[in-house]
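Internal tracking record. Fields below are filled automatically when a chain is submitted to the structure queue. Please do not edit lines marked as system-generated. If the sequence contains nonstandard residues, flag them in the REMARKS field before resubmitting.
Queue: standard
Priority: normal
Entity type: single polypeptide chain
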Amino acid sequence: MVLLDQATKTWAENALRNGPIDLVGPVKLELTYNSGFSFSIGQGHPLIITIAAIVIAVGVGAYAVMTPSLLKRVAASLVVGGALGNLADRVFRHNHGAVIDFIHFPHWPIFNLADSAITVGVVLLLIAGVLDGRHERSQH
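SYSTEM-GENERATED OUTPUT FOLLOWS
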């Protein structure tokens, strides 16, 4: 996940530096930099965001190792992979602690593959939690 995310961000920095590329309808690829979390929350505080992301990645990674549920392991791994992809931007790229975003749907913040992995992972964790709750209720 991290390698694919970093490869697409490198491509985006090179291919989109002269402006956006229209894909289908209103969907386009547009290079931006985000120093915050999702939806630009916390923008302008890259050190705090980086530390928080490390703590979250370690915590979710530990959860992935300990849970017996395959769905939860896959979901947590997506979250960790996405977090590490964005952390790589913050730590190793020279963008003042910002991540590279480039996928632009109308009426939605611009995002990247790492953001997509995090979102899918969180949704899968929520679904796994609901399924676990139903399973526990059916056993009682």
